[in-house]
Write a structure and sequence with these properties.
The chain has 113 residues and is mainly alpha-helical. The chain has 6 helices and no strands.
Length: 113
């Protein structure tokens, strides 16, 4: 059985190397999450064990729910999916998504009436 930290490290590497279709370096990720490239490397090789706080920062950076680091965890809740989908939106885009959700809810209520 694979160690959980090996799996977490593999997921960090996968997210880093596939980000925006081309990936980023360990140095770029380190700068973005305010750590060192050595730390990122050691997370990826499971030499260091990232804390929950570290995983939260990484999840926010990559725009994914923290559960992606834990294989076999329950599927993401609707709230987690929404948070992940809107994580990098600016205020105006987030407002537009909110208005659309309200519009869809009103349409559904109208059809039921």
């Amino acid at each position: 059985m694979t160690d959980i930290y090996d799996q977490i490290g593999s997921k960090i590497r996968e997210l880093r190397t596939t980000l925006k279709g081309k990936g980023i370096s360990q140095e770029e990720l380190a700068r973005a999450v305010k750590t060192t490239a050595n730390t990122v490397s050691r997370w990826e090789t499971a030499t260091y064990k990232p804390s929950i706080a570290d995983l939260e920062v990484l999840a926010r950076f990559f725009g994914v729910p923290i559960a992606v680091f834990f294989p076999g965890a329950q599927p993401a809740s609707r709230a987690n999916m929404l948070i992940s989908a809107t994580a990098d939106l600016d205020e105006r885009d987030l407002e537009e998504v909110t208005l659309y959700a309200r519009f869809r809810r009103a349409q559904r209520a109208k059809r039921k009436a």
